[in-house]
Input
Amino acid sequence: SVFALFYTAYCQYVLGKTEESYNNFIKVTKSYPAHKLGIESHIYAAKCCIISGDYEKAIREGRLAINKSNDLAQKVDAILLVVNLHQELNQLDDAVSLLSTSTSFNEKNIPIKFKLAEIYSYQGKITEADEIYEDIQNFYAGTKYAEEASFRRGKMFFEAEKFFQAKNHFAFCESNFPNGDFAEQAMYYKAFSAEKLGQSDESVLLFQKITMLYEKSYYVFSAHERLAFLFYENGEYDRALSEINFLQENYSEQVAFS
Output
């Protein structure tokens, strides 16, 4: 049956028997071309090809899954698989073309929207990327997707050295999602943006707030680092030394590699 053949191939895949699993996944695609597991087998056959280093064959299998599937979640998985391969091969126009076929807003295809914005940002198409993030924020206002979109907007502008816009987006993320997954990061980059804008006093207050609000983490460590730097730059050497001593006592491993 389709189930027996698919799960035989899947077990072989999990066990690292790539060639055997690939051959069996191909058998499923040929014997049950319209079945959901037959289409899923194209995706796993593509993954086997990735392991073997044959990206072009992986793309072909992935595109077969995209063309055959009527299940949106499955189609999204296949699209993202193929897009990641196009990115790996620096075929960004092909990646954008494939992502652009999904125009409707649906919770299942949100990863496609984020991926398209990510590639636009990488290509330097800030306006196009920002429009997608803004659409996500508006369409899913108040949700985790809006939070992620607002943070990504800030990070995109930060990396483009547009610190005024970056700070505004991080501030929006922080104030509207104070208990969200990106709250600590948003506060950190808001502080860093303020520092880049020459707003030393505000950045010090924000970095200090991070060290008081959050437990030991990468961003708390980095906040103490930035405070040490800012205090040193402002000629407050005792306070800078205090931060350095704190880091050495509490983050000795990170200090050794920073």
